[in-house]
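Try this one yourself first.
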């Protein structure tokens, strides 16, 4: 397995337990854990779990990224190739982009849940902040507090943050995104980039990204003739 990827097969901790650990770290575990969170009515689950889309609905190319918010290689992708993707292809109407959560640990799960609890228009700015500051918040002794500070900067109160990451339905929704992605695309590492339904193998450099996208655009033009 290339060094630039995070090996999923090495992860042996059951992600079913992640939710419990997240609640314990926030002091919200109770005898009623299996019931719906008392504040769940304040969240619109369908909207929270729905895909967050960047770009034109009429774009010829759909790019899906499966990533974990504590994955350093995912942060590298967002600092590099993703900026080219956003500037040259998404903003120009060539690409429709969807970020999907593939948490590899409890902290990444909490970050994913928090971002989804923010207003939709703030989702991608929060994701950007999370990845740009990953080296700082993810390595703090109290990383959940550091994460909640990012939420505060994005307009998510500490009360909302705790209610969000302690919400059973949101947890299950994010895990469904992860599990569905793993089943459909046989994801082996993060980030995994899917272009028009096909996973891109190997390290995705800016050059490789441009070549792949330009090839897909050329195919779409040929099909239209």
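Now uncover the answer:
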């Amino acid at each position: 397995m290339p060094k630039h990827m995070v090996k999923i097969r090495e992860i042996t901790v059951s992600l079913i337990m992640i939710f419990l650990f997240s609640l314990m770290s926030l002091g919200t575990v109770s005898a009623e854990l299996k019931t719906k969170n008392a504040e769940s009515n304040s969240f619109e689950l369908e909207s929270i779990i729905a895909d967050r889309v960047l770009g034109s609905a009429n774009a010829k190319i759909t790019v899906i990224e499966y990533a974990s918010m504590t994955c350093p290689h995912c942060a590298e992708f967002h600092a590099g190739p993703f900026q080219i993707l956003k500037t040259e292809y998404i903003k120009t109407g060539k690409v429709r982009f969807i970020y999907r959560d593939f948490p590899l640990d409890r902290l990444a799960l909490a970050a994913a849940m928090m971002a989804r609890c923010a207003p939709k228009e703030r989702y991608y700015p929060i994701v950007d902040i999370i990845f740009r500051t990953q080296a700082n918040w993810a390595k703090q002794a109290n990383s959940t507090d550091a994460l909640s500070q990012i939420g505060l900067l994005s307009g998510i109160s500490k009360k909302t943050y705790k209610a969000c990451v302690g919400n059973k339905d949101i947890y299950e929704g994010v895990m469904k995104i992860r599990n569905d992605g793993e089943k459909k695309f046989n994801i082996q590492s993060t980030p995994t980039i899917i272009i028009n339904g096909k996973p891109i193998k190997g390290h995705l450099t800016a050059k490789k990204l441009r070549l792949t996208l330009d090839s897909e655009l050329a195919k779409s033009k040929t099909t239209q003739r």
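Discussion: The CA atoms of residues 50 and 116 lie 9 Å apart. The chain has one domain: 6-28+46-212.
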